[in-house]
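Readers of this paper often ask what the protein records in our data store actually look like. Nothing more is needed to write down the fold, since each code stands for a local backbone conformation. Below, we set out a record of this kind in full and without editing:
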Amino acid sequence: MDLLALVLALIALYLITRLQRDVDALRRSLTIVHPPPPIESSRPQATAPPGRSVDDELIVPPPPPVPAPVRLSAAQSAAERPLADGNPEQLERRIGERLLLYAGMLVLVLGVAFFLRYSFERDWMSPTVRVVVGAASGSALVAAGRGLARRGFRQYGLFLSGGGLAVLFLSVYAAFAFYELMGALPTFACLAAIAAATAVLADREGSLPLALMAVCGGFATPFLVGGGEDAQVALFSYDALLIAATMYLAYRQRWPWLNLASLSFTVATVAAWAEQYYTDAASQYLRTELFLTLYCAMFVAILRANRRSLDARARLVSGFLWCAPILYHGASIAILFPHGVALLVYLLLVSVAVAVGSLEAGSPALRLSGWALAILPLLIWIAFHQDATWTVAAVISSVGVWLIFFITQVRLLRRDETTRGPDMALAHACGMGAFAGLYITLNGPTSPGRVAAIALGFALANAGVWMALRRTAAAAVHWLGVACVFVVIATLVGFQGRWIEAMLAAEAVVMVWLGARIGRTSFRRAGVVLFVIAASVWLRVAAPFGAIALTGFNTTTAAGAVIIACLYVAGWLLRPDAGLVGRGVAAERAFILVAASILTVLLVSMEIDAYWAMRRDTAVDAELARQLMLSASWAAYAGILIAVGMRYHYPPVRYFAIALFALTLLKVFLVDIQSLAGIYRVTAFLVVGGILLLVSFLYQRSRNDAQPGEPSLPTEPDRR
């Protein structure tokens, strides 16, 4: 019963597929043959002037000859004469030629199935006779279908042949699985031979459904015949041959979908085998990795052959086939992660392959994504293997991945081909990834000097590229920017400071500088985002201010000072007289300078808090002095900002200063007037009041100095 049900299901599926294809082919092949209508001239009748004939006045060329109508024989008229859709004769012919064929085949198969079931129940046939009858029926259908196809009934014949091959396949499987008449090896050979015969027939007849049947049968054969033991070499070798045969057939017939089917069955085969048999043994993991590499190379070869194809189907299938190298990489990481040396060698080889492949394909996106897929597993592995036995291997791997992509980009830079977005991103990320690996490996209580030296080495390498190619390659400026970032990192690490925030701020300055130099708005805005990230990281460590127990030059203060300095440098790069063109430059500069002012106030307040927190136990008036210094410093800094904003005609800074004055006044009247007493209260009010009077005088002088027709307050020049 299971055999009959499977036969019926396959035949029904094949019927539906062929019906749709035949209907589509019929619609495309029909042409209407009618004699062209007679040509009627719409030219008005000409009248000749007196004394002249019409023929003398107007010469009309003879009409083109009308082709004789094509005469169809009586047989051709019934079979080949096209009819309009909805014509009763057309509908009748479709029903007779197609639907009756499929219905008749289905009814016949059901009748045979019911007869076989009846005979099985009464034990009329032995298992051997049943298998022989099934094989004979399948062979007869194949032979009949081939004969009909040669006589001009191609679709009809292919339909019968496909059904016969399916019956043959199932008969052999029944002899092995149900009746145990055949051993595993003969059954495997028979099923493989049937699949090969199906592929040959599909190739000769140009039938994609038969080809898909062959691929499905070929990949299903090992699972239908396989026993309870692991036969990895035989199974994976057989799958490799199937992939190669599918590639050949798909190339000959231009059937890209076959390769997608091959990939799907290969993934299913490997996953099913691994779930049941894979272990972490030394011999098995290496053998598995070699076979996976072979499979990936074959599918990459398909991608390489299709990359310049104009066929829309081939391009669509290529998009799906990119899953092959991605799945291969993920499986390789999972297999090799417990085996350290093997994983590191694999990552280096993948880096070389991606670098060479990206150069051949001219794909910066492939280069950037390949670097990311190599460096991220490497950093994760280094984080899990920080003992001394793996130090040399981690250092060699980090530097090796960096050198592979660094040399690749230098080669492109010599031709000035690294101006596209992914290559510019890789120029900044490549060195940072390698340094992160070395930092994780070598960082320790006695290693700041070594880490700083490594950062200087990266800085010298990038600066050397800029020096060598700055006159011939416009993109060489990126490497100078990376060198500056590494100099900042080396300085802070050498002083055992916090380098993450400073590195981000330095990189933000570089991004703003590059955006200002090459006119890229995206670079400037990326720099603004990096500034926000750097400030957020620093504030997460610096707050609450009272928790900082040191003042002066300490790690947190130094990192904050570097961020503030970088913000001011970025604001200077975006100054109005720099000649920048682009949307949002003024808003970006205002945001950067206001952010620098806010961080300056926070840093000064943090230092005041930390200073008086250390003296609470020794100074009686420590809290009063702290409040006084906070109010005075805020007012003084606001006054400085007002003066600078007037001097350089920059309103955003003045607006922030006014807001800071308002905050200072709120603190004086809501906090200081209650908490301060004696000389501290007097001093706070005198200092804040004096600064306010001085600022008011500056505004008054600005109004008096203004010429008639000019604004009373200096404004930023119009850069347009």
